[in-house]
Amino acid sequence: MKCLACEKMGKTVEFEKACSLGTHLWKTHDLKPQQYYDQYLAKPGDGKCAECGAPTSFRTIGQGYKEFCSKKCAARHIAADPERNAHKCAEYVNTMQREYGVNNCAQIDAAKETRKNTMKERYGVEYYSQTEEHVKKIYDTNMKRYGVHTYIALPEFQAKLRAANMASIGVPYRFCLRTEEAKKTYAEYLDKHGCDLVDFIDKKHITYRCRKCGHETTEQDLFLKVREAHGLDFCTKCCPKSSPVSGEENEVRDFIESLGFETQHYDRGFLDQYGADVVIESKKIIIEFDGLTWHSEKYVPPEYHLKKTEIAERMGYRLVHIFSDEWEEKRPIVESRLRNLLSVGSIPINARECTVDKVSHEDAKAFIEVNHVQGDVPSAVRYGLYKDGVLYAIMTFCMARYEKTGWEMLRYCGKSGYNIRGGAGRLLKRFIEEYNPNQIVTYADRRWSGKEAFYDKTGFILDGTTEPGYSYIVSNKRVSRIQYQKHILVEQGYDASMSEHEIMYNRGIYRIYDCGNLRYIWTNPDINKEK
Hints:
This protein is of the alpha+beta class. The protein is built from 19 helices and 21 strands. It is 39% helix and 21% strand. Strands 11-12-13-14-16-21-17 form a seven-stranded mixed β-sheet, sandwiched between helices. It has a four-stranded mixed β-sheet with strand order 6-7-8-9, with helices on both faces. A three-stranded antiparallel β-sheet has the order 3-4-5. The longest helix is centred in the first third of the chain and has 19 residues, at 82-100. It is extended and about 110 Å long. The two termini are 60 Å apart.
């Protein structure tokens, strides 16, 4: 890189790096890089924005001035040049595909999470459009400009929309097109089963007529799928409905009523559009009996059980889900939990009358397997409540599995048929005294535990919830998903290009989802004081 100022003076001075040239200009010629560029290298139009003519900033001797004064001008100028725009877009997409495997940075998972976290920190929501400030701003602007809360409510806009849709798709609104497509699909579906579509009321309810007897009925689309799966006639007159209540559900109801409670059953119109199996109105408790087959992903969406639980909570009820394999295999445990839930029929044992001692791994496993509905998990520390040499309650711990520090409480359960008053608090107190943990985290199964569970009484604070988890249904029993991870399935010879879910679904092995967990945290107040 030659120094043109020296060359003008009859000297030849060259440099390998631009920074060296810059130092030379400053020491020898008292010139700044921009002054040198303006005197010896400037070209017509340098220093002016190619879009608006405003001054642009200087970069380096090698690069000269920026072409545009702002990103806005750059975007506007490039957009007006089809060839350059196409080249820039293609270059950007190629770079994003090469580096991240997406077309633009907004599609990168890490960017999505960062954006959501930033919005939560600043506004408490994932998207700015969800903030009250944004909604109010839109509302006020529309009311000021148009006199309505939203522009699409204007009669002139609706008229333009209808005219445009009629010209392009032949119907006034797009949802009419979707409705017509849905009607056509259901009409073809019903035709295969000897019925004619009468009306498509909404996304779920269909009115149809039997060709054989002329009977007309309205049912949900799920009802049709269930009948098809069993090879039954769609007509409820030719093939009457059986009792909507299963035998196992009747067993649960009979057990509740044997404890002295009145119960109700609702097919529809309770819990929003859903029904409810066993409603104990006096206790504001709902018991749902969930058969594994009909509550699998084949017939209900993943969020089905959680959604019913949340609706019940909003209505002031506590909802408990009992899976059919629990009732079949662990009925004494389920009955004991229901007695404690209803505060009736259990033998009371006061924790202060018991002694606390550590429990061996073998004794703990044997006790938990027959008294906890989820069974045992490996633990490092185990405490039990003993009275007259009999173990009545147990609590187990391990180092936190999903946290960097602290402990996790894994299991707490009492002896079936007994109500251990104050048992959880006393066992937890002993663990804290001996191990002085800085933090304890625990997870409560939301199918069984309400937000008013014993955790609140023992110093735990509700920290959040987890997404619904799933198990696979094998031989009418729930089996842990760990046994069917993709690498295990691939080792067994299944297609590596398919996901775990796709492989299992194609095998006819379906998932059943729970309600997720409530996450509780106990924090040591003494350690916080020291800090």
